[in-house]
């Protein structure tokens, strides 16, 4: 009968426990049920099934390449957001911002290094992940569409890296993008137009810088995130990671 | 396992094709046995994922402490670098462009992207899923390996062996 009777004293005494249980959604039950609930009761972990096949845990099978690509994306998103505090997409200021990162901002040079090397590593990791999926035949039915989504993610990774390449506005960036955009101009009939849309002009300048910046910090990351959501969701729907047929 | 009760405890229903025959004492075959060859995601999968995150994070920070990202002179549209190179992942394409702008710059990249996109619909051989370099897929494996090795060679040539004016320039010269 005392269930409805409560005192402030009890509330304070049970405060840590009550906060903890309200955040964690604890599940009473067997250890097995508690372990399953730890995964499906957590918004960040519920992308996982409660149970996974042993083959999915074999490091020699996946080499962890998809996961590594995703982690590199996270590192890039965080370090990139921090870099945005110090960067101005202006041909007058961009290069000075780089020098400030190097000599003025605390740990600025480390921050830029992390972003730069993670970007290179992500291109490599995504490509190697594609090789892993190919060599293990993991694109075969019912996973055909997830392979297609994966190729789109590879293209997103390349575009993200390519658009980011221009932002430091040094000689390396300027001439790499000039060379890269000139390749697009070789397409018949529409090549020149593609380059014009890409650069916002006929050569790399302020319009190109702002276009690449907006693509790099807003459009492409969002597109990549959406595709990643589909990619991970399809892994679950297609029956988890591929594995040899049961014997 | 032994039969506990032999008499019928539920009346038979003539409309049903099944009925409770007996209640036996003992564990079912599935008790203490995982369904299939599965393990619970927590902790087996999640801890491994966290370990990979630690390794990736430490590697990235270590490399970033040791090597500085390149930064050259400010961009100058009037003074081109020689050679001007695309980012390393496009240098293979740039190398192809130096042979033929249209074939190397447009046809080859388009062919690569299109064949990658349509790969699962072209290769309908169902064999060899879940095994590295499955014997049943020798042709597919060989074709893909040629593609990967060719890309690698083109990138190495473009990145390391091309000097001013895109001439072949051995790095030890």
TrEMBL record, chain A:
Membrane is among the record's keywords: yes
Domain of life, source organism: Bacteria
Record-annotated Cytochrome b/b6 N-terminal region profile domain positions: 5-244
Record flagged with keyword Hydrolase: no
Pfam families: Cytochrome_B
Annotated Gene3D superfamilies: Cytochrome Bc1 Complex, Chain C
Transmembrane segments: 61-87, 117-135, 147-166, 172-191, 212-233
Keywords of the record: Membrane, Transmembrane, Transmembrane helix
Record InterPro entries: Cyt_b/b6_N, Cytb/b6-like_sf, Di-haem_cyt_TM
PROSITE patterns on file: CYTB_NTER
PANTHER family: CYTOCHROME B
Protein name: Cytochrome b N-terminal domain-containing protein
Organism listed in the record: Geomonas propionica
Automatic annotation (TrEMBL), chain B:
Membrane spanning stretches: 50-71, 96-119, 139-161
Protein origin, superkingdom: Bacteria
Keyword Repeat: no
Residue intervals of the Cytochrome b/b6 C-terminal region profile domain: 31-173
Principal subcellular localisation of the protein: membrane
Keywords: Electron transport, Heme, Iron, Membrane, Metal-binding, Transmembrane, Transmembrane helix, Transport
Subcellular location: Membrane
A Pfam family per the record: Cytochrom_B_C
UniProt keyword Transport, yes or no: yes
PROSITE patterns, A to Z: CYTB_CTER
Bilayer topology annotation: Multi-pass membrane protein
Protein name as it appears in the record: Menaquinol oxidoreductase
Taxonomic path: Bacteria, Pseudomonadati, Thermodesulfobacteriota, Desulfuromonadia, Geobacterales
């Amino acid at each position: 009968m005392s269930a409805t009777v409560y005192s402030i004293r009890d509330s304070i005494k049970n405060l840590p426990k009550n906060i903890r249980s309200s955040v964690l959604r604890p599940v009473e039950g067997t250890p097995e049920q508690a372990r399953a609930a730890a995964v499906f009761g957590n918004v960040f972990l519920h992308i996982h099934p409660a149970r996974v096949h042993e083959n999915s845990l074999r490091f020699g099978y996946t080499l962890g390449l998809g996961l590594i690509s995703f982690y590199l994306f996270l590192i890039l998103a965080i370090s990139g957001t921090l870099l945005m505090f110090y960067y101005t997409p202006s041909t007058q200021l961009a290069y000075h911002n780089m020098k400030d990162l190097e000599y003025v901002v605390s740990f600025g040079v480390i921050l830029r290094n992390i972003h730069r090397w993670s970007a290179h590593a992500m291109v490599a990791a995504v490509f190697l992940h594609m090789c892993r999926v190919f060599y293990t035949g993991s694109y075969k039915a019912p996973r055909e569409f997830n392979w297609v989504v994966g190729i789109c993610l590879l293209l997103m990774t390349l575009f993200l890296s390519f658009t980011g390449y221009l932002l430091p506005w040094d000689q390396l960036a300027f001439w790499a993008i000039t060379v890269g955009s000139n390749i697009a101009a070789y397409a018949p009939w529409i090549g020149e137009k593609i380059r014009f849309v890409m650069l916002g002009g006929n050569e790399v300048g302020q319009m190109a810088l702002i276009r690449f910046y907006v693509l790099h910090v807003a459009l492409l990351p969002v597109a990549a995130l959406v595709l990643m959501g589909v990619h991970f969701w399809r892994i679950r729907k297609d029956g988890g990671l591929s594995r040899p047929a049961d014997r | 396992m032994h039969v506990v009760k032999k008499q019928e405890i539920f009346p038979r229903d003539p409309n049903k094709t099944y009925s409770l025959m007996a209640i036996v004492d003992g564990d079912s075959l599935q008790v203490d046995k995982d369904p299939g060859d599965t393990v619970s995601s927590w902790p087996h999968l999640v801890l491994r994922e966290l370990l990979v995150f630690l390794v990736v994070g430490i590697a990235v920070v270590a490399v970033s402490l040791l090597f500085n990202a390149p930064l050259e002179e400010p961009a100058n549209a009037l003074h081109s670098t020689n050679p001007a190179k695309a980012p390393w992942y496009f240098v293979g394409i740039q190398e192809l462009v130096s042979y033929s702008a249209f074939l190397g710059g447009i046809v080859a990249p388009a062919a690569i992207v299109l064949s990658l996109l349509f790969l699962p619909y072209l290769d309908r051989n169902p064999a060899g899923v879940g095994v590295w370099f499955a014997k049943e897929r020798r042709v597919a494996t060989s074709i893909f390996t040629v593609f990967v090795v060719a890309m690698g060679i083109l990138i190495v040539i473009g990145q390391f062996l091309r000097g001013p004016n895109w001439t072949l320039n051995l790095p030890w010269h």
